């Protein structure tokens, strides 16, 4: 009986504890719910007087929060920051506005933090890329030295190859020799890109320390009229194995009168077994009619000189002078047809003005222009790979095929590089860095692989556009440091040209003797 009563008491106690626990659990749950509701951001907003809270503050907060979220996503961290922490307490209207401003300030700081991180990352990436490029260039430089320079050490004389031409400029004048500057003091040219709103320097360069070129000549600011300079230039071309200097020519009345120096250039070229071909420039007022008269003058003055370059025309076997016509495409093919077709009303064919006329091809459409005009061939001039259809190495094989199919000469123009920002500071996009001879190597290989039987080099001394192979030296002034050929040395591109002329000659399998083209 006592045991039974004990069991009953125990059972009643357990039930009381169970009921009390249930009551406590329910009350705790209700209190927790009330606390959560009171502490939630939604309740804080609901309890806030609407007349006090400015809508613009909330819009600002929303916009800043969106920016914060987008910024976090940009950096791959979607949940790192929230607009407000979930434990924020309810506030009065004044406290709420303070909270908004504080949150906005915090958000702005976070945005600034991420912007700073992004800028630092971009800067580090740029520095890393620059270092990679420098290392690559240094590696290519070592490769070129190990590969080419041992071949340049031979001092043997190479025969001039008359199928290798080079563009030569005789328009430089010096204060010391001529009493005035010309071309070394080149103007800084205005930007021809109408949509480019950048501001660039204006005016002219002031030699001898400040010249219109990115490289500085080893001879200093020389005069093209100086006989010693002319003789040295012809000897340098001869030592490099180049056969023909294509000399920029304008008639006596033009601004850049290079006609007066032609006799001295022809005489010096003859001493070194070189040939000279005129490169007729687009002087003011040039048109097919007065061009015919200027060609008449040019041939009457120099046709009898043994250094004037001549070659055999395949169609009839005639041995004729060679004339390069710069910017030939500016005149319609119908105008050229009158001069160059044997059926033209003003035809030069079969007359004393007959010659091998070489037109300039820049765009793809110029192929049809060259053909319809009845030019004997075409060249591409610009040593800027990718600048135009004609100057792009990848198109040379097709251009040679087109020339072969139409009985034309194809003379691709290759160069060691390009930079003209001293006279066209807005044209940096067309810069082609030399890369210690690597760019020149690819250009030569592209010309050889195209199958062309002739090549032209841009240039010996077009200093304004940085295409020269003439020796350069390190130099600087207060505001500018000139580029140079170091560490390979000032004669590097002459020596490199000599080596590539040998490769070109061996690939073709023959040499061109001077007597064959006289």
UniProtKB/TrEMBL annotation:
GO terms for molecular function: hydrolase activity. The keyword Membrane applies. Keywords: Golgi apparatus, Hydrolase, Membrane, Signal-anchor, Transmembrane, Transmembrane helix. The keyword Transmembrane applies. One of its GO terms (cellular component) is Golgi membrane. Residues 63-84 are annotated as: Disordered. InterPro entries: Glyco_Hydrolase_99. It is a single-pass type II membrane protein. It holds the Pfam family Glyco_hydro_99. It comes from the Eukaryota. Its main location: Golgi. The chain crosses the membrane at residues 17-37. It is found in: Golgi apparatus membrane. Belongs to the glycosyl hydrolase 99 family. This is Glycoprotein endo-alpha-1,2-mannosidase. It comes from Trichogramma kaykai. The lineage of its organism: Eukaryota, Metazoa, Ecdysozoa, Arthropoda, Hexapoda.
């Amino acid at each position: 009986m006592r045991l039974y009563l004990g069991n009953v008491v125990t059972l009643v106690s357990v039930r009381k504890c169970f009921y009390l626990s249930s009551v406590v659990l329910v009350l705790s749950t209700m209190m927790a719910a009330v606390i959560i509701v009171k502490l939630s951001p939604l309740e804080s907003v609901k309890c806030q007087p609407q007349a006090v809270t400015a809508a613009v503050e909330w819009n600002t907060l929303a916009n800043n929060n969106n920016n914060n979220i987008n910024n976090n996503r940009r950096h791959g961290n979607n949940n790192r920051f929230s607009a407000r922490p979930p434990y924020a307490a309810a506030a009065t209207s004044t406290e709420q506005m303070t909270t908004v401003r504080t949150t906005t300030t915090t958000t702005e700081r976070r945005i600034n933090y991420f912007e700073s991180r992004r800028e630092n990352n971009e800067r580090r990436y740029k520095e890393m890329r620059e270092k990679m490029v420098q290392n690559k260039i240094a590696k290519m430089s070592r490769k070129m030295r190990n590969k080419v320079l041992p071949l340049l050490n031979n001092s043997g004389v190479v025969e001039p190859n008359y199928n290798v031409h080079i563009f030569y400029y005789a328009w430089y004048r010096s204060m010391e020799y001529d009493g005035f500057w010309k071309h070394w003091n080149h103007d800084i040219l205005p930007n021809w890109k109408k949509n480019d709103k950048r501001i660039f320097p204006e005016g002219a360069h002031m030699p001898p320390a400040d010249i219109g070129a990115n490289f500085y000549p080893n001879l200093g600011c020389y005069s093209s009229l100086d006989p010693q300079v002319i003789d040295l230039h012809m000897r340098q071309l001869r030592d490099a194995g180049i056969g023909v200097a294509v000399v920029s020519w304008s008639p006596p009345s033009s601004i850049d009168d290079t006609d007066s120096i032609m006799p001295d250039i022809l005489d010096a070229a003859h001493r070194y077994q070189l040939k000279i071909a005129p490169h007729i420039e687009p002087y003011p007022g040039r048109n097919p009619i007065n061009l015919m008269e200027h060609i008449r003058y040019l041939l009457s003055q120099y046709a009898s000189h043994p250094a004037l370059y001549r070659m055999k025309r395949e169609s009839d076997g005639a041995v004729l002078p060679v004339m390069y016509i710069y910017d030939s495409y500016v005149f319609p093919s119908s105008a050229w047809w009158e001069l160059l077709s044997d059926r033209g009303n003003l035809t030069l064919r079969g007359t004393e003005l007959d010659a091998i006329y070489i037109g300039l091809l820049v765009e793809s459409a110029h192929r049809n222009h060259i053909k319809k005009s009845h030019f004997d061939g075409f060249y591409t001039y610009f040593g800027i790979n990718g600048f135009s259809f004609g100057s792009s190495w990848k198109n040379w094989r097709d251009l040679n095929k087109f020339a072969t199919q139409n009985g034309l000469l194809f003379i691709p123009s290759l160069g060691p590089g390009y930079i003209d920002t001293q006279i066209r500071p807005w044209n940096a996009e067309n810069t082609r860095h030399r890369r210690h001879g690597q760019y020149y190597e690819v250009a030569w290989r592209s010309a050889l692989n195209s199958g062309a039987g002739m090549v032209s080099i841009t240039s010996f001394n077009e200093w304004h556009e940085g295409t020269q192979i003439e020796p350069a030296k390190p130099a600087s002034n207060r505001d500018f440091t000139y580029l140079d050929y170091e560490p390979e040395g000032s004669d590097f591109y002459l020596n490199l040209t000599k080596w590539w002329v040998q490769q070109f000659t061996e690939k073709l399998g023959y040499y061109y003797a001077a007597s064959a083209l006289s």
